[in-house]
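Cast an eye over this sequence plus tokens and explain the fold to me:
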Amino acid sequence: MPEKESKAEQIAARIALSIDEGVLAKGTRLRSLRAAANAYGVSKNTVVEAYDRLIARGYVEPRHGAGHYVMGVRPQPTDPITARQAEAVDIATLLHEQLEHSFTTRLGDGRPPAEWVEGSVLKSHLRNIASGHRGLFEHAYESPIGFMPLRETLSRMLDERSIAVRPENVLLTLGANHAFDLIIRQYLRPGDTVLTDSPGYYPLFAKLKLAGVRMEGVRREPDGPDPQDLTQKAQATGARFFFTQSLAHNPTGASLTLGRAHEILRIAERLDFMVVEDDAFGDLMPPTAPRLAALDQLRRVIYVGTFAKILSASLRVGYVAASPEVIGNLTKMKMLTIVNSSGYVERIVHTVLNDGHYRHHLKRLNGRIKNAHLAAVRTLRKIGLRPWLEETDGYYMWVTLPDGVDDIELTRRAARESIFLAPGSVFEINRATEDQGHLRLNVAYIDDPRFINFIERELPRQSPT
């Protein structure tokens, strides 16, 4: 049985209704506490509580020594889905939705379902970490470069990928995005030009825009960045940095081939620019997969990794592996901007990596991704959507929309039904040159019946190619 409203709430609701309907105009003085108590047949304390509720809700303002006055008609609350559908297509809003989780169906999500990662390795072990390790938590500032045992573990893990790096050349960060932020702050200035994958990682685009840095998109092909496009744009702009994701590329799911990796490094050497290699899915990929950092051995490659996509987005731990000079500069920048990262969280990640369960977790996660990928391909064929690539790595598929379909408008229509899509335009630098729209879809959610029903209603079927 619902709880009966208090007298104070009844009075507050009556006054609020009068304000909403315009009976009490802006600037009207409410009854004094004594007069209101007599009018409503309650105590002065009840009136005080009612007026306090109106103040908290923005209906009334108190004026010292003069009473309580109406602030005006409050705008009526907008339906939450309608509010977020309006412009749920730009970089900030796309990122916000991935954090807030207000949509029901989550095709545009950048991460897998929580039960794929956190439920399989974290929940069963984190409860025992603090109690099982008395020295786990220290109450003191620590080195800004990060928790030494975790850097030693990362050094061994990178060695398995043929990236020879000492622990002192690994800097711990608050995830990959923090690593990008440090690199941008240290090496780029407003007006500089950088090269990035296009399509590419949209939060990076936002950081570069915020820093006043111009971007030139390098066309992404199934086997990696287009060497001809990279050469042309590097020569035309004089860019000193190229940001790229080699494996399980976000948003296309494509991975770099060995031959293409050699071409990229030859171009970087000839035209003298640095490469920032994002390996967000590194632990899911084979150690022998082609990596620019392995071929270059960190001479002109800055290598960025993270655990957010594989363990938990709440464990904000990432890292940079680079030359001693670069790590020294980035460590100083980290110290000046945030002092140091979380030693507590770094110890937790270190324990998870070393307790014997992490490799089993990766095997199980890869199995889930593979099964979801096979189901996604079947579903896309059924509903007449064409993936850019059918054989991809990681969580994403880059899906080509039928001719004439606007990805932004489609995203808005989906939002009206609480379906979260990631429009391809957000991932594109060279939007004007793209002749067809795309969506980035998370393979974990493609077989959702609500999404299937939406696509079958909203889109014309594509002819088979």
